From TrEMBL:
<feature type="transmembrane region" description="Helical">
    <location>
        <begin position="105"/>
        <end position="126"/>
    </location>
</feature>
<comment type="similarity">
    <text>Belongs to the major facilitator superfamily.</text>
</comment>
<feature type="region of interest" description="Disordered">
    <location>
        <begin position="385"/>
        <end position="409"/>
    </location>
</feature>
<dbReference type="InterPro" id="IPR011701">
    <property type="entry name" value="MFS"/>
</dbReference>
<dbReference type="InterPro" id="IPR036259">
    <property type="entry name" value="MFS_trans_sf"/>
</dbReference>
<feature type="transmembrane region" description="Helical">
    <location>
        <begin position="28"/>
        <end position="49"/>
    </location>
</feature>
<feature type="transmembrane region" description="Helical">
    <location>
        <begin position="318"/>
        <end position="340"/>
    </location>
</feature>
<keyword id="KW-0472">Membrane</keyword>
<dbReference type="Pfam" id="PF07690">
    <property type="entry name" value="MFS_1"/>
</dbReference>
<feature type="transmembrane region" description="Helical">
    <location>
        <begin position="260"/>
        <end position="279"/>
    </location>
</feature>
<protein>
    <recommendedName>
        <fullName>Major facilitator superfamily domain-containing protein 4A</fullName>
    </recommendedName>
</protein>
<dbReference type="GO" id="GO:0022857">
    <property type="term" value="F:transmembrane transporter activity"/>
</dbReference>
<feature type="compositionally biased region" description="Basic and acidic residues">
    <location>
        <begin position="400"/>
        <end position="409"/>
    </location>
</feature>
<feature type="transmembrane region" description="Helical">
    <location>
        <begin position="346"/>
        <end position="369"/>
    </location>
</feature>
<keyword id="KW-1133">Transmembrane helix</keyword>
<feature type="transmembrane region" description="Helical">
    <location>
        <begin position="285"/>
        <end position="306"/>
    </location>
</feature>
<keyword id="KW-0812">Transmembrane</keyword>
Length: 409
């Protein structure tokens, strides 16, 4: 699982950086589409695994949530090698009722579904001559483009192609983080990275914690939903995230990312507040879960597009934001889970409310530093323009004097 998560983290980071580098000001739409498919995969994969899960156990029995959690803890304490040491007293059902799950079939199915992707990537690498052991006789795709540009535009076309070549991901995407480029940058440049990462740390932390513990909250008092009914809460949450990202694709054409961010953050706070007020209503728990997923869905891609727009699409901000979001999902689940175990299930919504408010406050700080950074860039542009004007006037007067001398002679 660690190796799988490490690989997926690299894929996630590179995919976001490449979309931002290639499409730049239009990247918001493509980022929404990318994260729609992420949510769609998170929604579909449990449905694929569901037929292979064991029907025996907590789903068909009447034990309360505490006994079920004790059973899960006992199972986690013992490694697969030592499973035979689990005695009958540790299990909430008889030994003869144990039914083996065939969940490994679900992993094989997901692997086969994903198999065309690495095959397509390897084929593209082969065409681009990026595989050392398999040189291709056909010219690289980028070489064909360069040849066409040279025929059309000559030397000028080579410069344009070089820029496109770097935008396609073959250049140094971390050139903005080198020491020479960091000198002389304002504080606002670094604070935009930090605050943008902290906002995603909070919001993606809510996504991870809500998806992980909404079932625990549903089966606990005062709501005490049946196990099977509470199991639908996580599916509804991911379905809402998928629907929200699909809805955000056309919205990104019409509205700026900062407006969508403001609306979604405010909507998430209001939804969690309503869940706190109507904490005994199981009906509102389902409705609130849907709206919470809907508002949280497009915060991540909108924040990437907004931050990179501020920083002129250099790519470093994307890597910082993706890493911060992953850290938020990891840390917040551990933190919220510990608080729920110590203080009770009601603290689940209270933690969500506090985290959402902190995220909104950090976003307000990001807006302030964006304004400072914009003023800094405006002042720098004016200074450079003032320096260029005297040089232009000097060159113009020199040319005039030379012309007069030529005419007189």
């Amino acid at each position: 699982m660690a190796v799988s998560g490490f690989a997926m983290g690299i894929i996630d980071t590179i995919a976001n950086i490449q979309l931002v580098s290639i499409y730049q000001r239009d990247s918001a739409v493509f980022l929404q589409a990318l994260h729609f498919f992420i949510g769609f995969g998170a929604l579909v994969s449990p449905l694929i695994a569901d037929p292979f899960l064991s029907e025996t156990g907590c789903g068909n029995h009447t034990e309360n949530g505490t006994e079920i959690m004790h059973h899960f803890r006992n199972m986690l304490r013992n490694s697969p090698i030592a499973e035979h040491n689990i005695t009958q007293s540790n299990l909430p059902y008889h030994e003869g009722e144990i039914e083996e799950s065939n969940v490994h079939y679900a992993f094989w199915i997901m692997a086969l579904i994903n198999l065309p992707v690495p095959i397509a990537v390897l084929f593209l690498m082969y065409r681009e001559q990026l595989i050392p052991c398999c040189p291709s006789g056909t010219p690289r795709l980028l070489d064909k483009d360069e040849l066409a540009m040279e025929n059309q535009q000559g030397a000028e076309g080579s410069d344009v192609e070089q820029k496109e070549h770097e935008a396609g991901g073959h250049g140094n995407i971390f050139s903005c983080c080198q020491n020479d480029n960091l000198r002389g940058l304002p504080v606002s440049f670094f604070m935009i990275h930090i605050l943008g990462g902290m906002v995603l740390f909070m919001t993606d932390g809510i996504v991870g914690a809500y998806a992980g513990f909404v079932y625990t909250y549903g089966v606990s008092p005062p709501i005490s939903l049946p196990n099977k009914t509470a199991g639908y809460l996580a599916s509804i949450f991911w379905a809402a995230i998928t629907a929200g990202r699909l809805l955000s694709i056309p919205l990104s054409y019409r509205f700026q990312p900062v407006r969508l961010l403001m609306f979604n953050l405010a909507g998430a706070i209001v939804t969690v507040l309503m869940l706190l007020i109507f904490y005994t209503s199981s009906t509102f728990l389902f409705a609130g879960t849907f709206f919470c997923g809907l508002f949280l869905s497009s915060i991540f891609p909108c924040m990437l597009a907004y931050t990179e727009d501020i920083l002129d699409y250099q790519g470093c901000a994307t890597s910082v934001l993706v890493t911060s979001a992953g850290m938020g999902e990891m840390v917040m689940q551990v933190l919220v889970g510990s608080i729920i175990q110590a203080q009770g299930s009601y603290s689940f919504l209270l933690c969500g409310m506090i985290i959402a408010c902190l995220g909104f406050i950090l976003f307000i700080g990001l807006l302030l530093f964006h304004r400072m950074h914009r003023n800094y860039l405006t002042g720098t542009t004016k200074k450079s323009a003032m320096v260029e004007e005297p040089a232009t006037e000097q060159n113009g007067s020199a040319k005039t004097e030379q012309k007069e001398e030529t005419e007189s002679s």
